[in-house]
Please model this.
Amino acid sequence: MKIDPDTNIDLSAQIASSIRDLIVSGALIVDERLPSEAELAEQFEVSRPTIREALKRLAAQSLIRTQRGAFGGAFVNRLSYDDARTQLATTATLLLSMNEVSFDTACEARFALERACAPLVAERREEAQLAKMKVELEKQGESGLSDEDFCASDVAFHLALIDGAQNPVLSYHLSGSIEAMQPLMNMITYTARSRAEIIGIHSSILSGMEKQDGDAVVHDLERLENYTKKLAHTVMAEKRASREKTT
Amino acid sequence: MKIDPDTNIDLSAQIASSIRDLIVSGALIVDERLPSEAELAEQFEVSRPTIREALKRLAAQSLIRTQRGAFGGAFVNRLSYDDARTQLATTATLLLSMNEVSFDTACEARFALERACAPLVAERREEAQLAKMKVELEKQGESGLSDEDFCASDVAFHLALIDGAQNPVLSYHLSGSIEAMQPLMNMITYTARSRAEIIGIHSSILSGMEKQDGDAVVHDLERLENYTKKLAHTVMAEKRASREKTT
DNA sequence: AGACTTTTAAATGTCTGACAAATGAAAATT
DNA sequence: AATTTTCATTTGTCAGACATTTAAAAGTCT
Model:
């Protein structure tokens, strides 16, 4: 193992990249221990701090974990769905906030993805999901509920929905996207939205699932998408009006 | 700014986390310069190597970039779709390889996601996408094409398809998932697959798009999913048979 | 005055060496 | 045999130094 010091890329980035390749390719398997920092430093012919920076890069991606003490070291980490989901939600959030994505575009993507699993969900839904959705639906009807809690319950409702597909890979992709977009939507629309309207649609989704009617669920999700977009347009129009008034 | 040294968590992880929060919350905006490593070390009351490890963690997530020299430093990075896609593909690949996801589950998720954008694609597709898909389709018919190149062209075909939705958020989620899963599928099925069969379905997808017939595209994607699953089952049955023969 | 070159200061990149803290194995003791 | 102590190993953190890069500032020449 050796690294090219002539390029202007960081040594730690190169080393991280070559170790990452070993993990992704399967040459290093889950729970396998990497050589100690001192040994890696020798192998790559760099100093220990450089190796450490490389390992921290990998740790930031949850590719390795480290343990102190004798027989400690860096171990290849089994990437959990939870870790992956957290990363995806962060990335998706930043992608939206930093790239001037229009509300309609984000909204369209979120609902297109959710509708993708509606047929599977309707077919496979089990009592556990239905019960969870019922609980959230009732919570959304409570009068003392804060906007934050309503939003959180909204997210929980939709996460329960997609889990109904019984497909962890699908859940991973969708939950990341929903967790990133729902707060954004909430922030924009909470002033104008009617909880009753949303609860009505949610309730209809639930009954569609009970009847295992995928088409009905798809249709309700379309209604929800349209309602959300309409709200956003209303809010934006109001903002524009009040801005023009002050100038 | 101060950090708790009494917990078991690395100082560099805590510092990275608190800077990450500033970025995600918008307190630090794109292209804003962070204090120099020496200043950060003073603010957080830790040494420079610890600060550096924290910054490398953030760099690994493409949240910051660094520049050497006077007036250099660490800057909040605008997360590009490309960076985000690369990260998602790596994460999704590892999620599949490390968590014993069945082929059917991965395959189902990949096609459910792709079908999600089929209606949008059919409606909005432009000449650029159609042309790109035509090019790939012709390439797939060339007799001298290696398995690797056929697979790469397959990926390119589907990426062009989803780009037809003209929704970068959707493209991000889908391209990551396709890039992760297609090589996996290829590895499993390349021995048994019939290129003619796949090309036939691709060709049908293309004509559906030309006619802006979303339902037809969805139907063809279902055919492709079923064919892929069937291939995988065949291959696995053969493997099982040869294993039993040797024992 | 304007264009070019040189200097310089500031910042990251890397290295050396050291000590602290954790941790499990092995040795010593009861 | 069970418990305690010792010990070696490894990561976590620190201090200080030098190399390298970079752009601004100063200096020089036409």
